[in-house]
Amino acid sequence: MGQAIGGSLPLAIGVALSPVPMIAVVLVLTSRQARSNSLAFVIGWLTGLAVVGTIVLTVAGEADASVDGSPAAWVSWAKIVLGAGLLLIAVRRFRGRPRNGDEAALPRWMATVDTMKPVAVFGLAAASPKNLLLATSAGAEIAQSGIPTAQQAVAYAVFALIASIGVGTPLAIYYAMGRRSQVLLASLKSWLGHHNAVIVSVLCLVLATKLIGEAIGALTS
């Protein structure tokens, strides 16, 4: 199980350091319904990770993701596809980065967070494409280890816990400091917004290289 946790750890860090979900939770915490919306965000976030993990581990188990302790060929090809998706995100984000002191462009939906109902916030937290892609990759990484199903579930739970540190930090600041947290959260949002494109590009590039490199190594060994 240690190998499965270790293999998925870089992916968990990638999710945890993703700026957009952290900006989203800061916006939620400064919205009109901060407490109810923050609860909806947490539930949506955990639900999204849980659903992806359940689907990937179930499908991988039925399709024999591990053969004699080694990854099945289809898992390696799936990791190449997932890695290619991350490379595409890296290129798009890097090309869209702010230049020459320009204001960082954030997703349009962020302007509507203040008026969102808890149901909408739930969906927002559950359906982050990049994070779901990384969660899928983590599920495949764990499934290919060939460990028993119960241990796979524990390994994925560890992944989800570490992946939630990023969005959990603003929540902890908010509930620990109350109104005093507003200035700190605003500064965090500003910094993440300005560096969003570069951070995401680097994370996706590194993780894509990891996935594709491991897949090529497994296919040629």
TrEMBL record:
Tell me where the transmembrane regions lie. 12-30, 39-60, 72-91, 153-177, 197-219
Give the protein's recorded name.
Threonine/homoserine/homoserine lactone efflux protein
Q: Which UniProt keywords apply?
A: Membrane, Transmembrane, Transmembrane helix
Report the source organism. Actinomycetospora corticicola
Domain of life, per UniProt, equals: Bacteria
